[in-house]
């Protein structure tokens, strides 16, 4: 199937069955925004490293305490149906009582993650990223972290609360979503020569 032959509107099931490489588009990550296919460009080394640092810290903390599941950027979350919206945060956490059965876990997750983490890429623009954070919250996420590598900040979004920007020297917290989790903002960002 070529990009020019894709239907104008897709649903989550059609997205799930798309080939990994689309002729005319190439190998990328894909998301759906109200039925429209969106191509996510791969991030750079800084982007990937920040995502892995958060993933590693969360994974260790969550697994030791059996709090749930931490996943990476290749997991789709169905945030809306008819038309479908499927987003893939760079890192996500789902608490234990929401983890699906093994059979259901083979597909996209129905619903929003409890925590969604988006690491900004050079091509990302703040209005679009803030709108994405809002979509996670509207779909049921209780916490969203937006990591901005060039500014070395993490913006924290929670339902019914104004966004809060954390800088170096401050601490990122899991709050009621991942109780007791703490990570220095400076520890999120890689150090390159």
How would you describe the overall organization of this protein?
This protein is an alpha+beta fold. It has one domain (43-188): tt1808, chain A, CATH 3.90.1570. It contains 4 helices and 15 strands. The protein has helices spanning 12-16, 45-65, 126-139, 185-188; strands at residues 21-22, 26-27, 29-33, 36-40, 68-72, 77-80, 85-87, 91-95, 109-110, 115-119, 143-148, 153-158, 161-166, 171-173, 182-184. It has a 6-stranded mixed sheet with strand order 5-8-10-11-12-13, sandwiched between helices.
Shape: globular
Task: Kindly report the CATH topology.
Answer: tt1808, chain A
What is the architecture at the second tier of CATH?
Alpha-Beta Complex
CATH superfamily: tt1808, chain A
Percent in strands = 25-35%
CATH class: Alpha Beta
How is the largest sheet built, in terms of strand order? 5-8-10-11-12-13
Question: Unreliable runs, pLDDT <50, ≥5 residues?
Answer: 1-5
The count of helical stretches stands at: 4
Main sheet makeup: 6 strands, mixed
Output mean pLDDT: 87
Which structural class fits the helix and strand makeup? alpha+beta
Order of helices and strands: HEEEEHEEEEEEHEEEEEH
Helix percent band: 10-25%
- Strand runs, count: 15
